[in-house]
């Protein structure tokens, strides 16, 4: 599934299907509470599904694993010592542009890029960077990896409830707590929310327009549910999910459903939001017989993010949201104009 190769570009492509079935979209995990994160300073203990992490003093050498933690650390002004490779949208340096820009802006020694090809944390590679904390709140970290890393004396902050299931805002909150920067993390979230609110205010025409986020993947047609973090951002911009989105949900996952070809005409959203790795793939879908079954596609009311970098950036993090928001709103404005025309 191309979407998961994007959002989980830090995982090996061979593990995409397994990640999908485990429920990799944010929004399904329990909210952060005083029971899961305790203490205002150091030492601080953060509880995860794999075990407790007690951080005795402010960490200085931060390693990250999964999606979003790297962005949160960089957005809080700290250069990590090790980060996972992004084999999907990272280019030659294995860093997506928003990460590479932040790394360059902070200066200093660039982080070691950890191999993700096996889905397991490369322990020896990680230990060579001498980290004093591993942050993996939105990841597929296994108990085996957690135990091996903690046995080496490195506290590990894993996901609160399930792999690939931590809301993106909670990734920032957890990161801030682990780094002793809760106030800065809260300020960062306020800034990010304000950017979305400002974008919504600049486009009052979005309010109340129905939208469906879909992904045509050759043999399977996916539609994302309101619990998906990308759909949440669209709703924050003023869009609403039509009843067809939830009525077509077959209970396959917490954040997505598949739609059979005979039901595509039931996706009655005014606007379709979609993605494609290249323009030809998008054009082929829009012109295809099954694409034309969707009323909004037939009308041309489609907003599409094209290219690996843009598709990856749709999954919100501390860095992708400001990076992608201008493009997303521009595409949506054009699609809404067609829908209302």
Structural notes for this entry:
With 341 residues, this protein is α/β, with parallel strands linked by helices. It has two domains: 2-180, Nitrogenase molybdenum iron protein domain (Rossmann fold, 3-Layer(aba) Sandwich); 200-340, Rossmann fold (3-Layer(aba) Sandwich). Helices cover 38% and strands 15% of the residues. It contains 14 helices and 13 strands. It has a five-stranded mixed β-sheet, sandwiched between helices. A three-stranded antiparallel β-sheet has the order 1-2-3, covered by helices on one side. A hairpin with a 5-residue loop joins strand 1 (37-38) and strand 2. The longest helix has 21 residues, at 182-202. The protein is elongated.
Total tally of structural domains: 2
CATH class of the largest domain: Alpha Beta
CATH architecture annotation of the largest domain? 3-Layer(aba) Sandwich
Number of strands: 13
Question: How many strands, which pairing sense, and closed or not: the largest β-sheet?
Answer: 5 strands, mixed
- Give the termini separation: 33 Å
What is the percent of helical residues? Answer: 25-40%
Kindly report the CATH topology of the largest domain.
Rossmann fold
Report the radius of gyration as a whole number of Å: 20 Å
Task: Write out the CATH superfamily name of the largest domain.
Answer: Nitrogenase molybdenum iron protein domain
In terms of structural class, how would the helical and strand content be classed? alpha/beta
Main-sheet strand order equals 11-10-9-12-13
Please write the string of helix (H) and strand (E) elements. HHEEEEHEHEHEHEHHEEHHEEHHEHH
Uncertain segments of ≥5 residues (pLDDT<50)?
Answer: 1-39
Spatial shape: elongated
Overall pLDDT metric: 88
Q: What's the helix count?
A: 14
- What percent strand? 15-25%
């Amino acid at each position: 599934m191309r979407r998961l190769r994007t959002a989980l570009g830090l995982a090996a492509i061979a593990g995409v299907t397994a990640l999908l079935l485990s429920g990799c979209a944010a929004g399904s995990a329990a909210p952060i509470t005083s029971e899961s994160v305790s203490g205002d300073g150091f030492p601080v203990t953060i509880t995860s599904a794999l075990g407790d992490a007690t951080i005795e003093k402010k960490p200085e050498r931060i390693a990250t694993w999964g999606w979003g933690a790297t962005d949160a650390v960089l957005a809080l002004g700290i250069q990590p010592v090790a980060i996972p490779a992004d084999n999907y949208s990272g280019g030659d340096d294995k860093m997506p542009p928003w990460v590479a820009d932040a790394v360059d802006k902070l200066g200093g020694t660039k982080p070691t890029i950890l191999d993700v090809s096996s889905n397991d944390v490369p322990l020896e590679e990680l230990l060579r960077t001498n980290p004093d904390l591993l942050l993996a709140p939105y990841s597929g970290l296994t108990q085996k990896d957690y135990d091996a890393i903690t046995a080496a004396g490195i506290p590990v902050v894993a996901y609160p409830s399930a792999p690939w299931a931590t809301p993106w805002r909670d990734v920032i909150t957890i990161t801030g707590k682990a780094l002793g920067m809760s106030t800065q993390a809260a300020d960062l979230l306020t800034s990010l929310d304000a950017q979305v609110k400002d974008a919504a205010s600049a486009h009052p025409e979005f309010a109340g327009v129905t939208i469906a986020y879909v992904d045509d993947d050759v043999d399977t047609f996916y539609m994302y549910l309101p619990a998906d973090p990308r759909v949440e951002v669209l709703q924050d911009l003023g869009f609403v999910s039509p009843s067809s989105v939830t009525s077509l949900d077959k209970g396959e996952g917490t954040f997505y459903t598949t739609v059979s070809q005979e039901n595509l005409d039931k996706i009655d959203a005014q606007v379709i939001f979609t993605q494609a790795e290249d323009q030809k793939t998008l054009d082929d879908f829009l012109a295809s017989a099954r694409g034309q079954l969707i009323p909004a596609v037939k009308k041309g009311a489609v907003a599409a993010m094209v290219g690996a970098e843009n598709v990856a950036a749709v999954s919100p993090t501390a860095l992708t949201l400001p990076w992608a928001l201008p493009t997303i709103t521009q595409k949506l404005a054009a699609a809404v104009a067609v829908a209302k025309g």
